[in-house]
Amino acid sequence: MFAQTEPTAALTAGPRRGEILAGWRLTDEQRAAATHDGGHLLVVAGAGTGKTTALTARLAHLVGSGCDPGRILLLTFSRRAAAELLQRAEASAGHAVARQAWGGTFHAVANRLLRRHGPALGLDPSFTVLDQGDAAGLLALVREELADVASGAGGPTAQPRRRRRAKPETMAAILSRVVNSRTPVSTVVPRHFPWCTAELDDLKATFAGYTVRKRAAHVLDFDDLLLCWQALFEAPGAGDELRGRFDHVLVDEYQDTNALQADLLAGLAAGGARITAVGDDAQAIYGFRAADVRNILDFPSRFQADIVRLEQSQRSTPPLVAFTNAVIAEAPERHEKQLWSARSGAARPALVTCADEGAQSAAVCERLLNHLERGTPLRSQAVLVRTGHHSDLLELELSVRGIPYVKYGGLRFLEAAHVKDLVAALRLVENPRDEVAWSRVLQLIDGVGPATARRVVLAATAGGGDARIALVDRAPSLAAGLAAAVGQLATALVDAASPALVGRAGAQVDRVRRWLDPQVAARHGDAAARLADLDQLAAAAAGASSLGRFLVELALDPPASTGDLAGPPLRDDDVLTISTIHSAKGLEWDVVHVLHLADGCVPSDMATGDDAAIEEERRLLYVALTRARDALYAYVPLRYHHHRRGRDDAHGYAQRSRFLTPAALEHVDHQGAAPVSDPDPAASAPGPAAGLAAVDRRLASLFE
DNA sequence: GAAATCATACTTTTT
DNA sequence: GTATGATTTC
User: Fold this and answer.
1) Which residues of A325-336 are buried (b: 16+ CB within 10 A; e: fewer)?
2) Do the Cβ atoms of A132 and A169 come closer than 8 Å?
3) A274, A446, A592, A630: least surrounded by Cβ within 10 Å?
4) CA–CA separation, A137 vs A437, rounded Å?
């Protein structure tokens, strides 16, 4: 997986103490973190203080001191972070580390352990993994059935449902929060999902049914992965071995772990592992996923840990650090630290006030191109937004101007309907008991809706045999035409799962697509584009070692950007990054543009009302601002246009984000709106929305 | 009785 | 663009 690299001086220096890190350029703080010897350790690492370097150095130090790399566990927030760390460790500490150390997200590590030790729990190691969308699908299925049972059980047909029920995604979010925070449904719902309180009983019943169905279908959702890992600790036989499996556990981004994950660490610590947790409470931004800042705030007392602080920013220039320090200074509770920087660079961050969103897009492009002309390539610049669609208008503008970009976060590839269809079909190749997948795929057939799909699934899985084979010749009680269509689907799945194709994921995908492609083409007008998406997925699958692994990786580590699957074509081009702030965590660029710093965007109007949520939004802004090395632009549109029913054109004035306080603004230069765009429309060729703004301006000038 | 169709509302952040 | 709930069609 990792490229081989020449060992560096650090490795060849030999394992004598004190010389292990001789080749490293570390600050005193970083060295203290890397070489700490004793019990558990908390490294409070401010933004840009070189925490990855410190963590890598610690890994090298441990191995150099004689620790067995196979007994080191590295837990990171994303697989990408794990890969980077292991790669860097490999470069400096030798190949053995990357090959032998365990690394990945909590979920990926759980998956790996469960494939090996699942039977100790009575878990068939061939389970498939439900991502959150699949989980939502199964919850919807279960809820529908419960409702049918309730109304079919007689009595005056239940009161017409006038209330809108929680969306399946919301149910999944509730359930996940319940599990990860280990808090009962009856507490979680009123506190975090008050608008669902009326259906609390329905939710409880749905969750119970969901659990039963998950087990029957041999699937685990994300939360099950963690729960089952925890259960392994208690499993007779496997438990002792697993608890004592690691000597050192290094956890990155500890501020974004939840109660369940902290318990897993406690389990490992009880087995003798020494925990090193690295994180920054000022950058805790995953509260919505039940991450709890208390984990890092309470770590020293819970684990009797020593604390090392990293406060020297290696990333940002002093003026940027002064600004970001001022922004976070107003957060009420945190591990105290004062970041400073010894870097050169005197340019202050800029607050760019724009007339409206269109002007913001223009202003971004202008500054972007300025930096490009002055030598900062697009790939060293990033545009950061609170939510995926906050960049819609800018993307239009970029397309019109021919500026290439990749977007991370937001709407993801895997969420498109046709992609989910293919993935569901592939899951059936792996696991014919997966009801959610059956239900989805069957409904692709013309004339099959929820009710028919359910009947078919029920009949096919009844015998306990392979449902695919059961459906090849005789679909139960269906019109001849439908039965034939179901038979074709079943045949495709059986073929794809046949021994001749197993192990050749690419061929398996091809076989499934021979059935699926016509369905996709028939259902969607833009068939060409959608089939191209499927081509991408097929190409990625062809490169995987097996279909099962491919599907697990897809669930645990989905492609993060548009074009992540596409491979090299864009690689060597100079491409701008657009990212949600969440997806930008841990990354840095020379020049950073943060958009939409208006109340309602940052903080998001979804977060108002709850103090904790507001504080998380403050930290989110802090994360965004601290991604910049040399230049930072914060954009504030003053006016928003809302398009309603295609005709009405309402607008409203926005307030500058409340987090940009007077104290913070002392550290920025103010820039006005971008110059009004070129009066010649042909020369500037604005996108549709920007075009409207231009028309408005032209009209306004006529009225003067 | 079930599926297709229409109207309407709602769209954060992600392992 | 998509999911839901009500309505119409098969």
Assistant:
1) bbbbeeeeebbe
2) yes
3) A446
4) 9
Choose among A191, A20, A231: nearest CA to A110.
Answer: A231
Helix or strand run (H / E) with residue A248? strand A248-251
Measure A520 CA to B5 C1' (Å): 19
Whether A380 sits with its Cβ under 7 A from any strand B atom: the answer reads no
Please name which of A169, A208, A151, A156 lies closest in space to residue A185, comparing C-alpha atoms: A208
Taking chain A, what is the end-to-end CA distance rounded to the nearest angstrom? 66
A170 touches strand B (CB under 7 A): no
- Token pair for residue A416? 């498109």
DSSP SS3 for A436: helix
Q: Which nucleotide is nearest to A579 (CA to C1')?
A: B13
- Per-residue model confidence as pLDDT tens digits over A497-536: 999 988 889 999 999 999 998 888 877 777 777 888 888 8
Ranking A337-341, A548-552, A558-562, A569-573 by mean pLDDT, the lowest is A569-573
Phi, psi of A682 (to 5 degrees): -65, -30
**CA of A160 and C1' of B2: distance in angstroms?**
19
Residue A481 contacts strand B, CB under 7 A: no
Q: Is A111 within 7 A of strand B by CB distance? A: no
Taking the C-alpha atoms of residue A635 and residue A470, their distance in angstroms, rounded to an integer, is 60
Residue A80 or residue A172, greater confidence: A172
Q: How far apart are CA A281 and CA A618, in angstroms?
A: 12
Task: Collapse the DSSP code of A306 into the 3-class scheme (helix H, G, I; strand E, B; otherwise coil) and give the result.
Answer: strand
Residue whose tokens read 């945190």? A334
| Nucleotides in chain C near protein beta carbons (<7 Å) | 1-6
Nucleotides of B under 7 A from a protein CB: 1-4, 10-15
Nearest residue to A632 (alpha-carbon basis) of A334, A355, A376: A376
* Distance between the alpha carbon (CA) of A412 and the C1' atom of C10, Å: 37
User: Å between A449 CA and C8 C1'?
Assistant: 16
Which residues sit opposite A576 in a β-bridge? Answer: A405
d(C-alpha A199, C-alpha A349), whole Å: 48
Phi, psi of A331 (to 5 degrees): -70, 130
Who touches strand C, with Cβ under 7 Å? A 140, 160-162, 164-165, 167-168, 416-417
Question: Does the CB of A289 sit below 7 A from strand B?
Answer: yes
Q: Which residue is nearest to nucleotide B1 (CA to C1')?
A: A451
Which residues, in sequence order, are bridge partners of residue A41?
A: A276, A306
Could you identify the residue whose CA is nearest to the C1' atom of nucleotide C10?
A447
Check pLDDT > 70 for residue A413: yes
Beta-strand relationship, A41-45 and A102-104? unpaired
Question: Which nucleotide in the DNA or RNA is closest to residue A582, CA to C1'?
Answer: B13
d(CA A690, CA A674) in angstroms, rounded, equals 13
pTM: 0.84
* Nearest residue to A468 (alpha-carbon basis) of A421, A507, A512, A505: A512
Q: Do the bridges between strand A648-653 and strand A639-644 make them parallel or antiparallel, or are there none, so unpaired?
A: antiparallel
